[in-house]
Amino acid sequence: MGNRIERIKACLNGGRRRSDHPGVPVTPAELAASAAASVAAGAEAVHLHPRGGDGAESLLAADIGAAVAAVRRACPGTPVGVSTGLWITDGDPAARAAAMAGWVDLPGPARPDFASANVSEAGLADLLGALDAAGIAAEAGVWSVADADTLAGVGSAVRWLRILVEIIDVPAEGGVAAADAILRRLDELGVAAPRLLHGEQAACWPLVAHAGQLGLPTRIGLEDTVAGPDGAVVSGNAELIQLALPIWAAANQRRQTATGSP
User: N- or C-end of the chain: fewer Cβ atoms within 10 A?
Assistant: First the structure.
């Protein structure tokens, strides 16, 4: 399978806690079970936020390795990615670099295939250097048009696995316009890496459909939403995948019918 995503990636937990949804996976065993269920439902890759013993998000090699190894055992052959969000180290780039120093020593089964790198966050160059040293592919997290400009400024020094066009803190009715503005700017700047489009919270479901309409893969999971398109709380990640795939596929079919392209 490699790291290519044709339709959908599962985002298992993000920063959510059990108080947000009782099905949020936290421990390595829970992440593994949720990942396996999501893959069985149709997910082609998984993205997760490993936790420490206190349940808080962690970038320490031991916590990253334990979560990734458990998920890989549960769904062999499925690409596994993690977050590098700066909030995990309270906004401190040096603390993030220190926490990630041990990633280079992770054995293959415990090493992520890819990691997201939010281009708006401080310390991007050091982060990308750490990922490259560890042999971990980088996804660019692009949240705005300004982020698209930042990404272009990095130039060809980084070979991005894909660009995550992520619509965050945008109302549902504004999600598609916000996404199109970023995508248009990436085109204007000649940024040609593969793209994945998704939204969070209210913008989540409109952008699942919009991704299908554009022929782009998407993602969904408890990190992005705890409710289905009808607003009802879902049972967990697998149900979100099951709900999203027909929406994405129907929109993609309309695109193919309209354009005659696969």
Answer: C
pLDDT at 21 over 50: yes
Q: Are 186 and 163 in contact (CB under 8 A)?
A: yes
Residue for token pair 């109302």 = 171
Phi and psi for 38 in degrees, rounded to 5?
Answer: -65, -40
The mean pLDDT of 96-117, rounded to a whole number, is 97
Q: Is the distance from CB of 203 to CB of 3 less than 8 angstroms? A: no
Report the C-alpha gap between 32 and 201 in whole angstroms: 24
Rounded CA separation 176/27 (Å): 35
Please write the tens of the pLDDT for every residue from 125-134.
999 999 999 9
Rounded Cα distance between 36 and 128, Å, is 29
pLDDT higher than threshold 80 for residue 261: no
Instruction: Count CA within 13 A, CB hemisphere, residue 212.
Output: 18
Q: Which of 203, 154, 202, 153 is nearest to 180 (CA)?
A: 203
Q: In terms of Cα–Cα distance, which of 166, 111, 153, 160 is closest to 138?
A: 160
pLDDT value of position 1: 41
- The answer for residues whose C-beta is within 8 angstroms of residue 49's C-beta and 6 or more apart is 12, 13, 14, 15, 57, 82, 83, 85, 88, 223
